[in-house]
Amino acid sequence: MSETSPRLRAVLEDIPTYKPGKPAGTGGPAGYKLSSNENPYPPLPGVLESVTAAACSFNRYPDMACTGLMDELSERFGVPRDHLATGTGSVGVAQQLLQATSGPGDEVIYAWRSFEAYPIITRISGATPVQVPLTPGDVHDLDAMADAITDRTRLIFVCNPNNPTGTVVHREELERFLDRVPDDVLVVLDEAYREFIRDVRVPDGVELYRRRPNVCVLRTFSKAYGLAGLRVGFAIAHEPVAVALRKTAVPFGVSQLAQEAAIASLRAEDELLGRVGSLVGERSRVMDALRAQGWTVPETQANFVWLRLGERTMDFAAVCEQAGVVVRPFPGEGVRVTIGEAEGNDIFMKVAEGYPKEG
Ligand SMILES: *Cc1c(COP(=O)(O)O)cnc(C)c1O
Question: Which stretches make up the Aminotransferase class I/classII large domain (predicted)?
């Protein structure tokens, strides 16, 4: 067989396939999907309308420059249009950033455990991943990340809040870190959960970008805005980086449906952020309950909580599924549970209550 197989790049051998969150059971008891950090609210009627209207002309290619969306984003964030780039989800944009900066022999630094797409897209680029363990409190160890910088470092991801732990880094420590990063190394602040942050000590990456040409901010419509299925995210970065993102974009990657939905969502932002507020309320309810039950849970500023269950991770996930909620296990490490509908959260809390707190 191997003689007839086309030759594939050797780096692919080490790349794990991205594991999507398990879907909610069809037929089985697991009716709530708390495994992918999705927004449990269905699309707003107005957003749905604009998508339906756009669907009438999907025989045409989309607007490749995303003109309307760029205008909205430029206005909303107070950044020049040429500092913006869109992509197929912010994961798509992250992959483009790697294509633009990193190749064989280069190093890419990120915390671990963090977003599971980082090792995948880093290896695809051919660059070497440099994984810096989280602190014992499951927070980015920014001092250790700065210490890990070499003259081969090309890109550093800072996931704030971090997926899957929900933990954040604060303004002072992040500024101190950025001061230590050489000007020619790109720092990518992945702020996929920005809208869920209530801790005022967490800086807005867009403010940091304004004063630092080597900082790029990633945002997405997938989480707070509820457009995960439409694939649209964006970067805010200074011109050389934004230009590189336009060069590395898959032509027509962002569909017209996604563009229209994103525009309509920005215009309905008050309502959508109201929903985010309700989810943040649910998050407090879940966190308070878990702590009252005796769990040690890191402070989360995202739409999920992290239980470090170690060897009991898969067992806990199975018990959850039996009870009717699908969670996201990372074998040997822990379980990430998305804050979803109150009913789903209730089931999760009930499982957690009855589960032994120590291994
Ligand atoms: C969900 C998520 C994203 C966004 O993914 P999309 O491709 O925009 O759907 C990016 N970064 C992190 C850390 C995430 O958890």
Answer: 33-347
Pick the residue whose CA is nearest to atom 4 on ligand 1.
Answer: 90
Q: Is the CB of 35 under 6 A from ligand 1?
A: no
Cβ burial of 108 (10 Å; 0-12, 13-18, 19+) is buried
The answer, yes or no, to whether residue 23 has pLDDT greater than 90, is no
DSSP assigned state of 192: T
pLDDT for residue 254: 98
Give the pLDDT band (50/70/90) at residue 24.
confident
Element (H, E) at 220: strand 215-220
Residue of the CA atom closest to atom 15 of ligand 1: 163
Tokens standing for 17?
A: 């396939």
The pairing of strands 334-338 and 304-307 is: antiparallel
Q: How far apart are CA 107 and CA 129, in angstroms?
A: 6
CA distance 84 to 71: 10
What is the whole-number distance in angstroms between the Cα of residue 293 and the centre of ligand 1?
A: 31
Quote the pLDDT of residue 122: 97
Residue 133, SS3?
Answer: strand
pLDDT confidence tier of residue 14, bands split at 50, 70 and 90: confident
